[in-house]
Give the backbone structure.
Amino acid sequence: MGDLRAPFSTRVLEQSPEQQEFISQLPASHRTKEDQIIAPEADAKWLGGELLVDKINFIQDHLWMCGRPMPPRPLHYQIVISREITITESPELHLLWSNHRIFIKPLPSWLLEPEFWKRHILQDDDLARCARGFIYSYTALIAYPSDFRLAQEKGLLPSSLTWDGWKCVTKETLQDHDMAMVNPRYWYGELRLGRLNKVYRLKGAIFRGYSKVGGHTVYYDLIADNFAVLATLLGYVVIVLTSLQVGLGVDRLIENTAFMDFSYGFTVFSIIAPLIAGVGIFLFILAMFISNWIVTKKYEEKRFKEMGRKGRGQTRACPLHRRKAKLSTTMNLFSRF
């Protein structure tokens, strides 16, 4: 067990500390891993979904490929380099960036309550390390008054938090800060989402990667991007073939056996390679479609089984509902085209 103290001890919010279990500071609803919508409670299961970063920790040894081991740059700097600040409530997307967007999880008010730390966070070492790392990331994101104003405009901070209050939290957090006390994910700041996807695909998640956010949402875009790359390569092939054709008109090169062999081999390659690449792209997308179809069908069966059980079998007993469910699944798959 790590240090059983919150990173700060001063209360900086105007809300009353006597609010039982801090219920008013929790979200209105929460989606479980089983896709059930429930009222959240400040227990280890809910806090795990709000703070833990298990997916990133799974590839911790490969994070050097996705970013530098340094704190994130301030919010004003993100604007300077033309990154749009996008809110996410997932800790797994916090500080990931892709296509001129950086995803940032808002700082919840309950994480600024020292009493909440004592009651619900410090008893779990994993939660405490992630919470400390999350707070530490914000000390880097909000360094200047301009960063503070940006955070308020984007809804990243509680509305009752003042600049002086934030400076107090930052000072106390950094005073005895030790990187050994935070989750290793927060040894790194901003991470490239595209590279995280590549690492996850190399680790076995070929079709899904790390996250669908910032990726292809429909098959049409996936096909277009892959064939755009193929068209670029074919452009280079055309240049080489044109050069070889010119070379065949030069007497000196005609008499060169090595040049003639290369011309023959490359001509055959230029005919066969595009066909192989095109078929490969088609097979890859077909495999992805089948994989998505299987996953969707399995999820549908599991989901409706749970709904039927909780609804005393009423959903399973309705033929019209089953027909609508099948039609919905089919339309969902083909809509990706």
Q: What stands out?
A: The beta strands are 30-31, 37-38, 84-87, 96-98, 101-104, 191-192. The longest helix spans residues 257-310. The longest strand covers residues 84-87. The mean pLDDT is 84.
